[in-house]
Amino acid sequence: MRVAVVGAGIVGVTTAHELSAEGHEVVVLERRGSVAAGASFAQGGIVAPGLAVEPFPGLAPWRLAAGVPSRWGWLAGALKARGARRLPPRRQALLRLAVASRQRLLELTHAHDIDFEQADGVLVLLRHERALKAHRAWLALLAEQGLAFELVDARRAREIEPALNPAAPLRAAIHLPQDVAGNGRQFAHRLKAEAVRRGVRFRFDSDVAALRPGTPPSLLLADGSTQEADAVVLCTGAEAPRLLAGAGLKLPLRPVWGVSVTAPVNHVDGQLPHAPRAAIVDPAGGATIARLGQRVRVAGGHSMGGGSDTAPPLPALRALYRTLDEWFPGSAVLRDAVHWRGARPVLPDGLPLIGASALPGVWLNLGHGGQGWALACGSAQILAGALAGRAPDPALAPLSPQRLR
């Protein structure tokens, strides 16, 4: 089958790879000049299934939508989807996807000998006793779902991450030993090379102007040319609402903007760098800090609103610098820091859309929000299986676009 994948972010690249492994003839259309150049460019770098179903407070829906009436309908849907005390089937599906995606990531890493500056282990830092109490329900969820974790005291946390500031307040930490930190953009480039070896064609600087559903579907490009295919898979992130609305399908996708700061590790002669070994999550600060080879990345600052040409807001950047300095003072060469801001569309229920859309010939693999890197490999497997006509895992049914019909 001829398949056109629109979007070459981490989700688009993994989707193209899985489709080519199924024997399809795949072409990827990307409006930018490279893979992982948009929302995948400088994301936080953490792959942790437990965080996919229980994000830290920076992603709380009431904070994202607060004070803006046009977003209150989205907020109402978000609160309803997250309201149950026990994990509802939709969140069960998300967790199942996250675990499968982490497994597939490791399989691809070993199969293709991919180095993405990975480091094992994620540490969730709890500053005070009240923070520990607030996370008890999450710990119960991790135990109920069989996810590996260890609740450790401050001393043990500093053994796991020796560079943690000894003066910073720390009551306890949750160690997630099976989770990883790594450079999603580097992984996308390495997997793209493998996909090309399999025969996948990447067409960069190819802006899709319109989606034409049908049997077969086609794509109209901004230069006036047409891309024919037997199936179209949208992995377009923030561009999805425009293309789908133009074809007659409106979805309640809202862009969530994230900010990151990436800087080289500060090496001092004769001393080990005061930088994280792997990754930490600071729920109170709404930020993550990850070690990516010889760089440190701190990410957070999630919000709704603002266009794609808007620079990272100064308050968000200052908060990230403050968090980095609090936990790992002097860890990075800040004069060489790179700032980034990117949008990731999110549905009110927080779940991605994976499968056939209501438009003939059009398939969706989008809506991953800030979890694209963590969910990409598993989502690509599901999409490839659905396109091949294989019966889906019933537990993953809530991820299907049919839930919105």
Explain what this protein looks like in three dimensions.
Helices cover 32% and strands 25% of the residues. The protein is of the alpha/beta class and 405 residues long. Strands 3, 4, 5, 6, 12, 13, 14, 15 and 16 form a nine-stranded mixed beta sheet that branches. Strands 7-2-1-11-18-17 form a six-stranded mixed beta sheet, with helices on one face. Mean pLDDT is 89; it is low at 57-67.
Short summary:
The protein is an alpha/beta fold and 405 residues long. Helix content is 32%, strand content 25%. The protein has twelve helices and 18 strands.
* Distinct helical segment count: 12
Count of extended strands: 18
Shape: globular
Report the biggest beta sheet as strand number plus sense, adding barrel if it closes.
9 strands, mixed
Query: How much β-strand is present in the residues?
Result: 25-35%
User: Considering DSSP H and I runs of 4 or more, what fraction of the residues is helical?
Assistant: 25-40%
Radius of gyration of CA atoms, rounded to a whole number: 21 Å
User: Helices and strands, in N-to-C order?
Assistant: EHEEHHHHEHHEHEHEEEEEHEEEEHEEEH
Mean pLDDT: 89
